[in-house]
Amino acid sequence: MRKNVPAFGLAVLLCWCTAATAEPASGYTGPSAAPRAASAPGSYTGPSSVPVLTVKQLLDTGKDEQRARLQGRIVSHDGGDRYTFEDATGRITVEIDTEDFPPGQAISAQQRVELSGEFDKGLRKSEFEVDRITLLR
Fold first, then answer.
1. Average pLDDT over residues 3-11
2. Is 112:136 a contact under the CB 8 Å cutoff?
3. Domain ranges of the chain
4. Is 71:113 a contact under the CB 8 Å cutoff?
5. What is the pLDDT of residue 31?
6. Within a 10 A sphere around the Cβ of 129, how many other Cβ atoms?
7. How far apart, in whole angstroms, are the C-alpha atoms of residue 104 and residue 36?
8. CA dist 76 to 50, 60, 130, Å?
9. Tens digit of pLDDT for each residue in 56-114?
10. CA torsion sign, 20 to 23 to 25 to 27?
11. Do residues 5 and 83 make contact, with C-beta atoms less than 8 angstroms apart?
12. Where is the composition biased (Low complexity) (predicted)?
């Protein structure tokens, strides 16, 4: 005999799953209306052959799926996994998953960082998908 899950149980499970995925990335302490989540695990911190570009260079000459590094500041959390990144040449929307923040380290809007990732160039908008954040001194 098969037992059915009550509708209430499904509703609770759906709400719980939705709430768990709606939290923003942890580690960023700058402007945001959303609460922070838990810290993420560590990652590689050695040298890279991927070029450091400015936001302007990336937006003007970058190719879709191009690997790059950006140095500047994450100036705002725009909801979910979207943030605004800024350097001396401009701003770009960046996508940062929770696990891509440095573990156990808070990042403020004044902290200089290096973002490693991939440029996502679209017809109407472009963004940078972050794989790793490194704190700069």
1. 48
2. yes
3. 24-135
4. yes
5. 67
6. 16
7. 12
8. 25, 23, 15
9. 999 999 999 999 999 999 999 999 999 999 999 999 999 999 999 988 888 999 999 99
10. negative
11. no
12. 30-43
Residue with tokens 């998953």: 97
Return the sign of the alpha-carbon dihedral for residues 87, 135, 26, 116. Answer: positive
d(CA 26, CA 102): 9
Q: pLDDT grade, residue 48 (50/70/90)?
A: confident
The dihedral over CA atoms of 13, 14, 16, 17, expressed in degrees to the nearest 10, equals: 110
Q: Residue 55: is its pLDDT beyond 70? A: yes
DSSP one-letter code for 110: T
How confident is the prediction for the chain on average, in pLDDT?
79
Give the Å distances, CA to CA, from 97 to 20, 35, 130, 137.
13, 15, 8, 23
Which numeric CATH code is attached to 24-135?
2.40.50.200
Q: Which amino acid is at 5?
A: V
Question: Dihedral through CA 26, CA 40, CA 107, CA 30, nearest 10?
Answer: -10
Closest of 120, 121, 112, 118 to residue 132, by C-alpha:
118
Q: How far apart are CA 3 and CA 121, in angstroms?
A: 49
